[in-house]
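Fold this: AEC family transporter
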Amino acid sequence: MDATVISSLLPVVVLIAAGYLAGKRGWIGGKSVKDLSNLIFMLLAPALLFRSMSTVHVEQLSLRPVAAYFLAAGLIFAAMMLWRGFNRTAAVLALANTYSNTVMIGIALVGLAYGPNGMVVLLTLISLHSLVLLTSATVVLELAVAHEHAALSGVGRQDRSAILRTLGRALRSAIIHPVPLPIIAGLLFAQTGWTLPEAIDTPIRLLGQAFSPVALAMVGVTLALTPVGQHWRGALVQALFKNVVHPLLTAALGWVLGLRGLPLAVMVVAAALPMGANVFLFSQRYQVAEELVTASVVVSTVLALVTLSAVMALVGYL
């Protein structure tokens, strides 16, 4: 098994295990999980996302290599929504099938395996990854919430103006939201050419650095507090979609689009990365499939020890 893959994935497994131990020993109780989720979603994640986007200049982005990644993700997301229906559960699981852990695992892995040239390709993806996938998922989820509320209230067919009002509320909720808003704000800030004063940048950087370890530890805490064993089959299906189907479809579409060599290799490896912790946070925020998503993140990460090694061995032939 590739030592680079193991060295990149092992810290993730250890952090989840540490959270699991904290949950099992009762250091963190079930009532605290919601508060931790709010801390991560409302404070740590916005700091990380804003700072990550605050140095990205639109004219420097090469969008062609990431087209295959997002096209594959879009097809998988749409297929999942068609299969499971238009609801919150389907949207969260579709996000789980397409959202990679590009930051905590991807940066270390690609940097070690493909060097500076590979990092340029990956950072182009990272600069758009959350903006495209999380914002799109948020719009779908907010529309699904509006649809479910309408169904529960007994509202039947809506006229065109009512549908437009619902869409407007959903789009507003999707933008005034702790994930897309800091991404958009950071991207706009970057275009000004300004830099953050150190007194402001330092606390934002420290908050952002806390995101990954705290979020992964919370996955472990939730794992310890919920009966995940009964979800292992569903978790394995979700993990196989993310770890196997996503990179295979990305490779096929990239080949069709004329991509070859390093750009295609990096995109396929990025698609093969396990699920990112943001998927777990979305399931917590929208209160759907929490146990299944928790199990899926863990299974996907552990399975990646094998699937990533295989993908990295095979992309050399592309």
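The mean pLDDT is 86. The radius of gyration is 19 Å.
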